[in-house]
Amino acid sequence: MLSRPDVLRRTGGRKVAEIIYDEATIAAKVKELGAAITAYYDEGDLVVLGLLKGSFIFLGDLVRQIERPLQVDFLVASSYGAGTISSGEVRLLYDPQTRLEGKHILVVEDIIDSGATLERLLRVLGSRSPRSLSVCALLDKGLVQEPPPEIRFVGFQAPHKFLVGYGLDHAEEFRHLPYIVTMS
Ligand code: IMP
Ligand code: MG
User: Fold this and answer.
1) How far apart are CA 44 and CA 41, in angstroms?
2) pLDDT of the residue at 85
3) Least C-beta-crowded within 10 Å: which of 47, 75, 166, 182?
4) pLDDT-based confidence at 83, cuts 50/70/90?
5) Ligand 1 pocket test, candidate residues 18, 53, 111, 123, most atoms within 8 A of CB
6) Catalytic residue of the set 45, 73, 95, 113
7) How crowded is residue 146: how many other Cβ atoms within 10 Å of its Cβ?
8) Is the entire prediction scored with pTM above 0.85?
9) Cβ of 158 less than 6 Å from ligand 1
10) SS3 29
11) DSSP helix/strand/coil, 63
12) CA 16 – ligand 2 centroid, Å
């Protein structure tokens, strides 16, 4: 059980079980991803689409490591319907204002768990005639049986634990932690 004073100040005294990825580890990985993305896109317009809210910190760090022109926009997606059983639809609560047709689209996601939301989102975005469609996820729990080929950039193969921090929340808490942790 970790009781670093800065951790306790940030969590309001709630104890963190383990720091899974610290600031330096995350920064090194984001730099690596930025370099891979820079190398991947040769020519054409690039739109980086952050999936809110979870990607907000990752996106901010990532775009500063991409050394080519790009535009930033955001997406807010929600599974359609009530209750916990997914209807298989995805609704865009905020739809990017940027024109996507003929452009490279890079969707930035915090973590891929079941991959269900992302899969449906890819179908919606794919129908807008982009020049290419790819996903960059910081974390992947490795649970998707047949991952779609669009998942091109992945930071960490994450443990099968509930993670918070660096954008990831539990009931909207802990997004502001500069590290990724498990709570005890
Ligand atoms: P999926 O549709 O099952 O892949 O769900 C992915 C979404 O669930 C992510 O964008 C997160 O918002 C949330 N999520 C999945 N795993 C975790 C976790 O370990 N911590 C925090 N949020 C998670
Ligand atoms: Mg999310």
Assistant:
1) 8
2) 46
3) 182
4) very low
5) 111
6) 113
7) 7
8) yes
9) no
10) helix
11) helix
12) 21
Q: How far apart are CA 63 and CA 30, in angstroms?
A: 9
pLDDT tens-digit readout, 92-128: 777 787 889 999 999 999 999 989 888 889 998 999 9
Q: What ligand 1 atom has the least distance to the C-alpha of 109?
A: 10
The first and second tokens of residue 76, run together, are: 């807010």
In this structure, of 66-70, 81-85, 149-153, the range with the lowest mean pLDDT score is 81-85
Contact criterion met (CB below 8 Å) for 131 and 106:
no
**Shortest CA distance to 130 belongs to which of 166, 157, 153, 104?**
104
Task: Specify the amino acid at residue 182.
Answer: T
Q: How far apart are CA 153 and CA 108, in angstroms?
A: 9
Ligand 1 within 6 A of CB of 162? yes
The token pair that represents 62 in the structure block: 């990532």
The enclosing H or E element of 34 equals helix 23-40
